[in-house]
Amino acid sequence: MSEPARARTPALAPTFSLGRLVPLYLAQALATGATTVSTILASLVMSSLGRESLSGLPSTLISASAALSAGLFGALMLRSGRRVGLGAAFSLGAVGAVLGFLGARAALTPVFLLGAAMMGAAQGGYQQARYAAAESVPESRRGTALGLLMLMSVLGSFLITGFSGGVEALGERLGTSAEVAGWLVGGGLLGVAALLILAWTPVRAPAQVTAKARLSVREAFAVPGVRPTALALATAQGLMVTLMSLTPLRAHHMGVEHTGVAALISGHIAGMFAFGWLTGSLIDRLGVRFGYVGGSLLLVLAALSATLPGAVWLGVSMFVLGLGWNLAFVSGSKALAQWPAAQGVTDGLGYVAAGAGTLVGGLVIARAGFPVLAHTCAVLALLPLVSAWRVGRG
């Protein structure tokens, strides 16, 4: 083996070490739990504040703030490293969650919305942890690394949904609802995540020593395959957040209690993350085109099944919605891991789609009903098929 080859080999040898990646995975798991216990149910908080016609506004602010911050956090991570950027994002989210709790408890809608906006800005940063995981392994195993990250994330989400009784008890002790108390719990989880990321030792990513990492945003998006990848990621993110955020409101209108809504969310989170160990390896073996096609078809099925009568179909819809998002998201993230300049901007596009979807979706539900929104989402869910057609097997 030549000296240059020998020097490069150790850079990949430790990259898939569990000891190196566990702090990153655990921090992301806690962040997922924080999102589950707070922002997903933000529409119910707005309803309790007497603003049901604006039930989609918190999610819109979250998505808009994430869209604005994603590129900034991406640039920060390229300049100062993943640990600095992720630590700042988790810390910002912790402050925003506590502020959202204080605003909701005091019935100060502007303060609650400010906290939601800060949470969104934080998500624009810490959701890029998946690229840190993907960069830490050889390209042939990036789907597996992303899948493992998702599997770890589901633990945090299930922990908090399984603790819904404790969140309700906390709300009673504080003289508020479980949905409002969840924001305080979310702040605590993000605070712990910020501490965990300090214990993470990033490896030098292979992408950082290649010419691809030095491309500008314009140059990266000019590369064949990057734009179709961005389309698939943005579509999957926008549709998933829209239906995820507004389906609990539909369930509430159907008379489903808080524990029932928590069960719907648990099923959705299971679809999103629990099968990452399988979808990641399948994408490594079959290619990103498989993920785009499968994700698109499942997103269509999720939207259509949400319109069927009965809470059981809502549960089916939420699970399938998560699984369809998983396939498209893991595929797109794997493909984009080699183009750092396009990562933050693409995440921003996804948040724009999510923000527009939740804002318009809330208005559509108020004026035309949930089925109209769901059928529109089913049509838009076909867009990743365009991505599958435009990209290679990859």
Automatic annotation (TrEMBL):
InterPro entries: MFS, MFS_dom, MFS_trans_sf. This is Major facilitator superfamily (MFS) profile domain-containing protein. PROSITE patterns: MFS (PS50850). Gene3D superfamilies: MFS general substrate transporter like domains. It holds the Pfam family MFS_1. The lineage of its organism: Bacteria, Thermotogati, Deinococcota, Deinococci, Deinococcales. Keywords: Membrane, Transmembrane, Transmembrane helix. SUPFAM superfamilies: MFS general substrate transporter. The chain crosses the membrane at residues 21-45, 57-77, 84-102, 108-126, 146-165, 180-200, 221-240, 260-278, 290-308, 314-336, 348-366, 372-391. Residues 12-394 form the Major facilitator superfamily (MFS) profile domain.
